[in-house]
Amino acid sequence: MGTSDEIVREFLVESYENLDQLDQDLVALEGHPGSRELLSRVFRTIHTIKGTCGFLAFGRLESLTHAGESLLSELREGRRGMDQPTTDVLLAMVDTVRKILASIETSGLEGDIGVEAVIEAIGAVLQEPGPQFRPDVGIPAVQSTAAATTPVRSGPGGGELSTDDPGRTSASDSAIRVDVEVLDDLMRQVGELVLARNQITALAGGQHDGDLVRASQRLSLIATELQEAVMAARMQPMGHLWAKMPRVVRDLAAACGRQVRLEVAGADTELDRALLEAVKDPLMHLVRNAVDHGIEAAPARVAAGKPAAGVLTMRAYHAGGRVVVEVQDDGRGIDADRVAATAVARGLRTPEQVAALGETDLLQLLFLPGFSMADTVTNLSGRGVGLDVVRTRIGAIGGTVEVESTLRCGTTWRLRIPLTLAIISAIIVESGGELYSIPAVNVLEFVAADGQSCEAAIEYVGPAPVLRVRGTLLPLVALREVLGLPSAPGPGHQGEPAMASVIAVLQAGARHFALVVDRVLDIEEVVVKPIPARLSGVGVYAGATLLGDGRVALILDVQGIAARALTGHWVEAEPEPEPGGAAPEPVGGSEQVLVVAAGDGRRVAIPLGAVTRLERVSRDVEHAGGREVLQYRGAIVPLVRLDRALGGNQEPVGGDLRAHEHLVVIFTRGVRTVAVAVAEVLDIMDDDPARHSQVDERGVAGSTILGTRVTELLDVRHAVLLGDPSFFDHEDGAVDGRHTPDVVPAALGAIGALR
Amino acid sequence: MSSQLVTFTLAGARFGIDMFRVHEALRGQARTTIPLSEPAVAGFINLRGQVVLTIDLRIRLGIAAPAAGLEPMMLVVQVDSELVSLLVDEVGDVIDVQAMVLEAPPGTVPACLREVMLGLYQLSDGLLLALDLDRAVGAGANLPLHTPHSTRRTP
């Protein structure tokens, strides 16, 4: 019984492999209908399957392949030529064979998969007089060499059993099939060996015994080589995936009514088999997108001056220690403005949010959950589930997705994937007395937080620290705070890093942020150990690993930390615009303004000098005496909605203010405090009063040009008085920051430093 | 379930687990804490190259926190085909319960304890609570259970 199971399993493995080749060959045959070499190969494959399933008593499969074989033999003998219906019916046969094989694999039986329809279809094609075979001039020579070098073995079926490709004969002599489990096992063991090696290295490091040190170095070398060899054994060429593509693209193109020519490159680029499996679905999705949305229908292409057939290029190559996989089309490209409009229309972003984004950032919106550009839902795409899944899937294996697009010229999707998952290069850091490892791929740079560096400085926007590094503002979070560890001892602002700490600039997907850690210890090759599923809910750990000294260290999930620590968008501040390179010195009248978004799409500037701080408050809006109030730092503070201060909508705008979290600008004078709720904080910019112009509108003190956009200036006095009519009692003078630096509390010194 | 139980104590009460599920007993292992995890999760230990999750049974079962200075022991057990280490006060003898009757816990036993118990045995010198390991610490077990109990401390 065991022997026959074994034979069936081998039959399945071999047949699957042959079928993949068959798909390719059949599609290629359409392009070269006369190729005898291809025809012979197809014929042999089907013949082999037929022979073996006769031997194994799979009757349905046998009758199906028999019908296919009759058609193929006509083709091979030149009695008819390849045409579209012939290819279709042969592909249908291959699909049915696949289904039956799948059934055999799961249940051991052929199941009740209908073969009659396909057999009939083949019969119908056989009845029709097909196009005459036209010999292909170049081919007979190839065919004769193929015939001469193809060895023929006799198989258990009694018939001829030949290998399908002369090139593969030699490979099969030097290669054996190894069960994936064996490889996985081997990989695990090597992982353990690497750990033991790290331990020995750590021990030997403290010794002066020359022999021990030499032995440990040798062990280290061998372990590294072994690790590389085992990793190499798990590698599979991208060609495995590329092989499926001609068929996929052909079917997609036919379904969408497109003409598509597929070009692939880098078939021998290798990738860990688990990763290859993981990129398959995302890649298929991108291909579907490219054919359905990217490449235009033939008439539209011709009208645009392009060849009727679109070109879909798939490339794989190594770059920067990662494998890059590209899907490129020469279609219509992605209209960034339409992306923006769609994001707004679907309520995923507000108009002012998209207005603040550059073209590259606009394309990132494509990856938002629920985003779909398709006007109509087709069978293939446009359901709004898609690119976010692609990004999530690729992110899950430590990869990234990028998109580049030129309108009317085409789009390129680029996946960057690590070579392997099991062993990663990680940076060991200390925080709160424990060690953590950060995957090196996520680390862009380290910056000393000693205040000595002129390149980087920590600034505060209200209570929120930001890192200013070479003109870019990055949100700054302390690992201690993210993990809820006790804060580092030391004076100063809440969240202020201790003097001795180090800042890691990290990359999580498309966002960059800065993470404060206590110390950086080492960079090590670590083996990723999965952590129990019940801990995955925490969301900030990617796994655990053992360090050289035997300690367990958690591996941080940088994406998870970003998601946990960076909730708002205002922290994703744009690089400060510095026209003409050097920023003009803030002269005389120039002052800084906080640019915020009101809920109804307006951009409003608030003199920074008047602002006490910015705060996210996680409280419900309550009512006292007919006014909206907020509990803030143990006091009841009147809340003014920015929209209302601008004389607009009295109704709460959107769901934002009913939410439990509010972004508020706090104005304090003496014991009086007013909170103004804004939809979003966009930027801090320099404002030149010389550019102000008068606007005759309630709540607005004027307008100015910031960057390239017209922005209204908030009449702070009016807004504050709406919240607390007695805010300015006993004091004469406006709170308008342009004239009253005396209301600036101490914390503003820090904000002021933020240019 | 075998008839032999490995016993251990928690705050003076005696518990038993199926001996076949117990791998080993340990003392004095360095633990790596896991910030943000549930209160009953007491960190990871390195068990000869394997990363093993530790669960504080006192917190899990809603028993008062141990007196300061008590060095807990660990019982490494097999749950859902992976190893889990349990923090207990003291590991005791193996007791054969074949000749004894497994009784349902009386109604006065708090629900949080009753739902992770198979029952109890009457020994000559006290009671033995047979623990249902899968319900107590299995993957489906709801770990942050009964926080009011777990945070209450003995005066």
Could you please describe the fold and organization of this structure?
The complex is a heterodimer of chains A (755) and B (155). Chain A is of the alpha+beta class. Chain A has five domains: 2-174, Up-down Bundle (Four Helix Bundle (Hemerythrin (Met), subunit A)); 180-233, Helix Hairpins (Orthogonal Bundle), CATH 1.10.287; 237-334 and 373-418, Histidine kinase-like ATPase, C-terminal domain (Heat Shock Protein 90, 2-Layer Sandwich); 423-565, SH3 Domains (SH3 type barrels), CATH 2.30.30; 591-752, CheA-289, Domain 4 (OB fold (Dihydrolipoamide Acetyltransferase, E2P)). Chain A has 23 helices and 31 strands. In chain A, the strands form seven sheets. Chain A has a six-stranded mixed sheet with strand order 12-16-17-15-14-13. In chain A, helix 1 (2-31) runs antiparallel to helix 4 (84-107), helix 4 packs antiparallel against helix 5 and helix 8 runs antiparallel to helix 9. The radius of gyration of chain A is 33 Å and the shape is globular. Chain B is mostly beta strands. Chain B has a single domain (4-135), classed as CheA-289, Domain 4 (OB fold (Dihydrolipoamide Acetyltransferase, E2P)). Helices cover 12% and strands 43% of the residues of chain B. In chain B, the strands form two sheets. Chain B has a five-stranded mixed sheet. In chain B, a hairpin with a 2-residue loop joins strand 4 (41-47) and strand 5 (50-56). The relative contact order of chain B is 0.24. Classes of the chains: A alpha+beta (755), B mainly beta (155). Chain A binds chain B through residues 192, 195-196, 432, 434-435, 483-485, 529, 531-535, 538, 540-541, 544-546, 550-554, and chain B through 30, 32-38, 41, 43-46, 49-51, 53, 82, 139, 143.
Work out the helicity level of chain B: 10-25%
Question: What structural class do helix, strand and pairing data of chain B support?
Answer: mainly beta
Query: Counting H and I runs of at least 4 residues, what is the number of helices of chain A?
Result: 23
* Beta-strand proportion of chain A: 25-35%
Tell me the number of helical segments of chain B per DSSP (H or I, 4 or more residues long). Answer: 4
Biggest interface: chains and residue counts? Answer: A-B, 26 and 20 residues
Count the beta strands of chain A: 31
Low-confidence stretches of chain A: 133-172, 376-385, 490-498, 568-588, 652-657, 731-755
Largest sheet of chain A: 6 strands, mixed
| Mean pLDDT metric of chain A | 74
Q: Return the string of H and E elements of chain B.
A: EEEEEHEEEHEEHH
Low-confidence stretches of chain B: 143-155
Number of strands of chain B: 10
Question: How far apart are the termini of chain A?
Answer: 79 Å
